[in-house]
Amino acid sequence: MGSRLYVEHTYTRVARECKMQALFAVRFTHCIDLMTPNKTPNEKTPKAIHPLAGFIFMTRWLQVPLYLGLILAQCVYVYHFWVELSVLIGAIFGSADSLKHILDVVTIPGAARPDTLTETTIMLVVLGLIDVVMISNLLIMVIVGGYETFVSRMNLESHPDQPEWLSHVNASVLKVKLATAIIGISSIHLLKTFINASAYDAKTLLAQTGIHVVFLLSAMAIAYSDRIMAGTQVIDKAH
């Protein structure tokens, strides 16, 4: 009888210890799963990059001084914008030096020089300011979009001031944006030419119009080729 009680007691104790060990193993496995990053079955372990390939990939940082130089060019355009705006305001308030500067700027060689600040003169100065702004926008697209596309990601997804076009920027989108900006700049120059059409010969007017049309056709060709490439990628993913 005593031996039977001893066997039952031993069996109970062993069963209790096995249950505790099993519970500990389950909890330990759960902790390991929480500490281990989730991986999909098809996820591949990143391979080590060859030193030569890593060096070539690092050369993309050589573009950073170029973008910094464009930032300095942006500062020059900002300074030029405020100089021209201050001169325009000074001419409106009767400054003789400011008026002389504006008339010298807007007068076409060979054309009659105006003596006063007319509506056409103000329009030409404002168009010049708009031209500066559009070139500045072009610089921003090249600097931000080029850095994001060719150098490194900026991780601006959660930033409240992220530009709308930057959320889906790539090399193709950047080319279309740049072509559109160039068309806008060309339109400003063409409008300035037509305002002073009497000061130009027919050959010059036709040449500038032809250049603008070439810009339009080039932008349309870039956009169309980008659309074809996007459609091809969709078909490849479907298959």
Describe the fold and architecture:
By secondary structure, the protein is mostly helical. It is elongated. It has helices at residues 2-35, 51-58, 64-92, 96-106, 119-151, 171-195, 202-238. The longest helix is centred in the C-terminal third of the chain and has 37 residues, at 202-238. It has seven helices and no strands. The chain has one domain (62-238). Helix 3 (64-92) packs across helix 4, helix 3 (64-92) runs antiparallel to helix 5 and helix 5 packs antiparallel against helix 6.
Tally of individual helices: 7
Proportion in helices: over 70%
How confident overall, as mean pLDDT? Answer: 78
Measured by DSSP, the beta-strand proportion falls in under 5%
Structural class: mainly alpha
Mind summarizing the main beta sheet? none
N-to-C SSE string, H for helix and E for strand: HHHHHHH
Low-confidence runs of at least 5 consecutive residues:
none
